[in-house]
């Protein structure tokens, strides 16, 4: 007789195996999620155009999903962006013209790698500036702690006698 899958675990080993199988299933499903992003656009007439389309859709950011490309996103806005890229490629526009069009409409944020220019310097330098500020704060606190007089240093248990 087959054991019901909803039967309670009778041993610790059985429960652990069931939990491990469940985690493996969840991991497999999570790995397959990007495969569900469906490109609704028909294939382009030749392989070179199709390659350009795929490269461009991997360079543009989905504004809904934030850190996901329009190629990987299932959002309806990403589908609209893919359609725009598809149509512009069929019209004979270059990659630079398509990117310029998208940037003109949506700003530099639509590019996964925004250009380094005065408007984006803070975006590029921000992480390094925060790291430097944190390091300076640690050094300042360490120096202040080193300058504390001995009277302010906590007493140890042996000092009470």
Please specify the SSE layout and strand pairing:
Blueprint: H1 12-32, H2 47-57, H3 76-90, H4 95-106, H5 121-146
Helix pairs in contact: 2-3
Describe the protein.
This protein is mainly alpha-helical and 161 residues long. Among the domains are: 34-110, Helicase, Ruva Protein, domain 3 (Orthogonal Bundle), CATH 1.10.8.640; 115-144. Helix content is 53%, strand content 0%. The protein contains five helices and no strands. The protein has helices at 12-32, 47-57, 76-90, 95-106, 121-146. Helix 2 (47-57) packs antiparallel against helix 3 (76-90). The longest helix has 26 residues, at 121-146. The protein is flat and about 85 Å long.
């Amino acid at each position: 007789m087959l054991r019901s899958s909803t039967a309670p675990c009778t041993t610790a080993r059985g429960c652990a195996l069931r939990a491990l199988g469940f985690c493996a299933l969840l991991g497999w499903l999570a790995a397959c999620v990007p495969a569900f992003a469906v490109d609704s656009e028909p294939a382009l007439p030749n392989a070179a155009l199709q390659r350009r389309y795929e490269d461009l859709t991997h360079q543009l950011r989905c504004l809904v999903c934030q850190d996901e490309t329009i190629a990987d996103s299932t959002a309806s806005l990403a589908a609209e962006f893919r359609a725009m890229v598809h149509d512009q490629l069929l019209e004979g526009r270059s990659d630079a013209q398509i990117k310029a069009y998208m940037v003109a409409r949506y700003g530099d944020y639509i590019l996964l790698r925004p250009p380094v220019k005065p408007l984006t310097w803070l975006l590029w330098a921000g992480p390094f500036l925060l790291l430097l500020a944190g390091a300076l704060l640690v050094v300042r606190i360490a120096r202040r702690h080193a300058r504390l007089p001995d009277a302010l240093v906590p007493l140890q248990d042996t000092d009470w006698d």
